[in-house]
Amino acid sequence: MIAIIDYGVGNLFSLQSSLKFIGAEAKVTKDIEEIRKADRIILPGVGAFEDAIAKLRQSGMEKVVLEEAAKGKPLLGICLGMQMLLEKNYEYGEHEGLGLIKGSVKPIAPMIGEGLKVPHIGWNGLIFPKEKEKSKIYKYINEDDCVYFVHSYAGVDCDDFVTARAEYGAELTASVESGNVYGTQFHPEKSGEVGLKILKAFCEL
Amino acid sequence: MITKRIIPCLDVKNGRVVKGVNFEGLSDVSSPVELGKYYSDCGADELVFYDITASAEGRALFTDILTEVAQNIFIPLTVGGGINTLEDFDRVLKCGADKVSVNSGAIRNPQLIEEAAKKYGDQCVVLSVDVKRVDGKFMVFAKGGRENTGMEALAWIKRCVDMGAGEVVVNSIDTDGVKQGFDLELLKAVCEIVSVPVIASGGAGCIEDFVTLFQEIPTIDAGLAASIFHFGEVKISDLKDALDKEGIVVRK
User: Fold this and answer.
1) Contact B3, A123 (CB under 8 A)
2) Counting C-beta atoms within 10 Å of the first and last residue's C-beta, which end of chain A has fewer, N or C?
3) Nearest chain A alpha carbon to B117
4) Is residue B252 part of a domain?
């Protein structure tokens, strides 16, 4: 069973539906025991970072997520969920993230230069780092396959932990990974066939 | 590279897609779920479902249909029609919509945009605007294009974007249904004053019209159409091949 962490923000309908569609058993939950019992965890998220991480902390779920990730349980952060995996966040101030993967989150506007719209919204192709082996979550897809993005902030200084980038005035971090912890800036649950294949690969880890 | 989006729009009344559709291989051409799936498989980048029912029963049926669509189609879904309050936003977002488009509801109560953007985020709020030239000026029309609101379109669009609309669908009444191409003059003017994504609507009659749109206005993000897709005059897969050949980046 996959536990989709419910910390009270964001719309989880599509994520739940997409997992059901590929035959995975998933449950939206805030029950700590249930999260412990699950064999995989997804940390979703849309909205503002500060509010989201505060809710995750207050509910006691941050501790469980960290403990389960340390035990080697596959964890996938999506969009804001991915940003939460990193060490620091600079969205309206400076905030601590979960620190599971090296890097921080900063506004994309200064990175992409003039003339491009913020948020980065729409379908963009994935670029895999040359020097690295393809991530296991991409085993059913190819480089240049398009996925759906909606974001105004992106991960920076994630070094070798970056598993894909997307070209938008700059090469923005599209996904990160460290051991059993995975994060996608894009929304696999909104990325058609390609997205379903990524979720399927995550379910098979 | 970010890709240009191609978006079919489906009008739904009493749970069925209206405007005759004619596709081979579809068992039920007026089922929103079947048609949505068909478009998604053909490479549509997003779907717009427009609720044109007036009754409460029709509205409830629409949300049932939307739920079914969202359980089977995993690309962004925009929903419009009858969005007048925050409760309307809530109602369709819970059923799997990703973005909500407001038109008359915002004309009656502009604060709706501000409140919705605050609650659900700018990316969720789409301004849809029907524009027609009156004495050489772009004016906002209401009631399906029958009533001149007296508001100038560019000022209205700017105001709505400032209040938090994260995307603008610009529908030109002058070119709509004429199939002579998009309203490039209007669209250029809109792109110059806003920095959010602009979606062109009204006037597409053939593949060439989309090529011209993206070549003439590089800052346009998407092209939306209804009948030319429904009647099979333009196949989305052919359209994307043609755009690709012209060097316009699309998702394939």
Assistant:
1) yes
2) N
3) A47
4) no
pLDDT category of residue A121 using cuts at 50, 70 and 90? very high
Cβ of A150 under 8 Å from any chain B Cβ? yes
> How close B33 gets to chain A, by Cα (Å)?
14
Lookup: tokens for B6: 């191609």
ipTM value of the model? 0.91
Nearest CB to B251; choose among A119, A146, A190: A146
Tell me: the pLDDT tens digits for B115-174? 999 888 888 999 999 999 999 999 999 987 889 999 999 999 999 999 999 999 999 999
By CB atoms closer than 10 A (0-12, 13-18, 19+), residue A197 is buried
Backbone angles phi, psi at A168, to 5 degrees: -155, 75
- Whether B23 maps to a domain, the answer reads yes
* CB of A39 closer than 8 Å to CB of A72: no
B15 in any annotated domain: yes
Query: Average pLDDT of A132-161?
Result: 96
Q: With an 8 Å Cβ cutoff, is A179 touching chain B? A: no
Residue with token string 């998220």? A45
What is the structure's pLDDT at B187?
A: 98
Residues of B in contact with A119 (CB under 8 A): 122-123, 166
Chain A: give the shortest CA distance to residue B90, in Å: 10
Q: Confidence class of residue B52 from pLDDT cuts 50, 70 and 90?
A: confident
pLDDT digits 0-9 by tens, B71-91: 999 999 999 999 999 999 999
Contact list, B195 vs chain A (CB under 8 Å): 117-118
Tally of domains in chain B: 1
Chain B residue with Cα closest to A165: B1
Record the tokens describing residue A82, joined without a space. 């991915």
User: What is the dotted CATH code of the domain comprising A2-203?
Assistant: 3.40.50.880
Is B1 in Cβ contact with A125 (below 8 Å)? yes
Nearest CA in chain B to A120: B2
CATH code of residue B224: 3.20.20.70
Short-list B78, B60, B71, CA closest to B10? B78
User: What CA–CA distance (Å, rounded) separates A46 from A151?
Assistant: 9
To the nearest whole Å, the CA of A178 is away from the closest chain B CA by 26
Tally of CB atoms within 10 A around B114: 17
